[in-house]
Each structure stands twice: as structure tokens, then as C-alpha cells.
Design a protein that fits this description.
The chain has ten helices and two strands, in the order ααααααααααββ. It is mainly α and 259 residues long.
């Protein structure tokens, strides 16, 4: 019961940590990796040592006398548990290879502890063969994890390099477009200024041509009427109702008379 309770506590603790976002944000990634590895090692040991036949051996009893003559023990359970934890941790848990190495070492040592200290019902030759197979599985799994990490880091580096080159190319293109646009806009601005200067010459406007005609020979009254019409159109002509003649006051005098 104590072992089963310990397993339950470890499982609940792992689930709570993984599901709690505030805890995941406050814990540093390296600390989280070490903690997860320690929990998986503890859970693996508790799972292997909580088998009734193995508990009987640890306490010094014959499991056949306690559990009955039909009770049977095999190393296959230990091997499957160790292999399952190692494989699942390497392929399902996002932990770096060197942080997960203690889990692999603990799994191999757990089988050695189960065989040499607690005792095994397997023949010695089978024990050696099982140990070699487990070591090979651990090495291949760890090597595959390492290769995967290297490939992922290279892929990430390639993505960063590609995006950096793309950003530099887009920046150069934008600078070239700005320079071309500024050059073109400057030329257009100069052309508009020249056109504006040409259009602003008094002799080129309609009012300027009419005032210029006043100095030429012709009907001055007709030209003044045209000037008045333009003044009404452009709203700069003063109406007669807005003008008040002061006959008794003099504003000034000059060569052309008094005002």
C-alpha cells in the first residue's frame, strides 16, 4: 500500500506540474528538466519494486509461500518497465539528451539490482542476454535522441539564417526603392515647380492678359467690363453698395488730382 500510494503521489505531482501554467512559467527550464527526470526515475523504481513477488524477496520471504504455489516471477516485467520508461521519455518528453542520461543509467542499474541483489528466477545465461539487450536498447535510444537534437538545432539554425538573409534582402530592396522614389519625386517636384512658375507669370493668366490689353489701343470701357466680370467671378471686386464717397473730406492729393 505504501508503494502504491507513493506511485500515486508521484503521478499526481507530475500531472499537476505539467497542467499548471503558473508553475511552468516560474520554474526555470533546466530545473524543470532535472525535476522531471528525477520523478521518472522514482516512478520507474517504484513500479518495479512494487511487484508483490519482488516485495516478498526484499522482505526475505518466499513469494510462493506467501502468494501461493501458482505465483510466478520473470525478468520480462522489469525489462518492459525499464524499456517503456526509457523509450517514452526519449520520444514523448521534451528533455535534452544529457539531462535524460541519468534515467537511462538508472534503468540499467535497476535491472542489475533486481538480478544481483533481489534475485532472479531466470537462468544466468538469460540474465546476461537480457542485460546486453537492455544496454543496446538504451544506447540506441540515447543515440537517436542525440541525433534528433542535433538535426533540430541545425534546422533551427538554417531557419534563422534564411530569415536573416531574407530580411537583409528585403531591407536592401526597400532602400533601393526609397532611393529611386526620392530621385523620381525630386525630378517630378522640379518639373511641377517649373510649371508653376510658368503658370504664375502675370502675362500667362487670364487677368494678366486683360490688364495687358488696357495699355493697348482699343475700347477701354469694354476691357474694364471684362475686368469687372473677372472680379465678380473671383470675388475680389468691391460692389458699388459697399463704397461710400465722402465729398467733404480729403484723403490725399497727388500729381493726378485730389482724393
Amino acid at each position: 500500500l505504501y508503494v502504491v500510494g507513493s506511485e500515486s503521489v508521484v503521478c499526481v505531482l507530475i500531472v499537476c506540474i505539467l497542467c499548471s501554467k503558473p508553475i511552468m512559467r516560474r520554474i526555470r527550464p533546466a530545473v524543470l528538466e532535472v525535476g522531471m527526470t528525477f520523478m521518472m526515475v522514482s516512478l520507474m523504481y517504484l513500479t518495479v519494486l512494487s511487484v508483490p513477488t519482488r516485495l516478498c524477496k526484499i522482505q526475505g520471504y518466499d513469494f510462493r509461500e506467501v502468494l501461493g504455489p501458482d505465483a510466478y516471477e520473470s525478468d520480462s516485467g522489469v525489462l518492459l518497465v525499464v524499456d517503456g520508461f526509457i523509450t517514452a521519455a526519449h520520444y514523448a518528453v521534451p528533455i535534452r539528451w544529457f539531462v535524460m542520461f541519468p534515467l537511462v543509467l538508472a534503468g540499467v542499474l535497476l535491472y542489475g539490482l533486481s538480478v544481483l541483489v533481489i534475485g532472479s528466477e531466470e537462468p544466468p545465461l538469460n540474465q546476461i542476454f537480457n542485460a546486453l539487450i537492455l544496454i543496446c536498447i538504451a544506447i540506441v535510444t540515447s543515440w537517436g535522441k542525440r541525433v534528433t537534437e542535433v538535426d533540430e538545432r541545425k534546422a533551427f539554425h538554417d531557419i534563422i539564417k534564411e530569415r536573416s538573409l531574407r530580411c537583409q534582402a528585403e531591407h536592401k530592396l526597400a532602400r533601393a526603392e526609397e532611393e529611386a522614389g526620392s530621385s523620381g519625386s525630386q525630378q517630378e517636384r522640379q518639373a511641377r515647380d517649373l510649371q508653376s512658375q510658368t503658370d504664375s507669370v502675370p502675362t500667362t493668366t487670364q487677368t494678366g492678359m486683360i490688364f495687358e490689353a488696357l495699355f493697348e489701343e482699343g475700347d477701354a470701357a469694354t476691357q474694364l467690363e471684362k475686368v469687372g466680370d473677372i472680379g465678380d467671378l473671383e470675388h475680389w471686386r468691391i460692389n458699388e453698395s459697399e463704397v461710400q464717397i465722402m465729398t467733404e473730406e480729403s484723403l490725399g492729393s497727388g500729381g493726378f488730382g485730389d482724393v
